[in-house]
Design a protein that fits this description.
With about 110 residues, this protein is an alpha+beta fold. The chain has helices at about 5-15, 30-35, 50-60, 80-95; strands at about 40-45, 65-70, 105. It is elongated, with a radius of gyration of 21 Å.
Length: about 110
């Protein structure tokens, strides 16, 4: 097939296609209460997406939730080593049956 024919087919196949961004729905309070597995909510101290206060409010609805507030913004992705250490400590705590969590976290109700 020639390149020109291929381009014609590609354009014909994409006509009328509209890409729509799909964002996950925000869980309701009842949906959060139904989560019974351990959860770690991670937020940055200056995050615009979910503030530490909002993370604490959401975590309080889940029986096994912990919060990790990482210095900086956007969930601490500018401090990836610290973030990785907190995630590893959370997983280790769950695996060893010591869900008290690493320092710097708060447990939900």
């Amino acid at each position: 097939m020639l390149e020109r024919e291929l381009m014609t087919l590609m354009w014909a196949g994409s006509r009328g296609y509209r890409m729509e961004p799909k964002f996950p729905a925000i869980l309701t309070d009842d949906e959060l209460r139904a989560i019974t597995v351990p959860v770690m909510l991670i937020t940055g101290a200056r995050s615009a997406l979910i503030t530490p206060a909002q993370a604490h409010d959401r975590a309080s609805l889940m029986p096994h939730a912990q919060i990790a507030v990482v210095p900086g913004s956007h969930g601490g992705f500018n401090r990836i080593d610290e973030l990785n250490d907190r995630i590893a400590a959370f997983i280790h705590a769950q695996a060893t049956g010591n869900p008290g969590g690493p320092a710097g976290t708060a447990t939900g109700n």
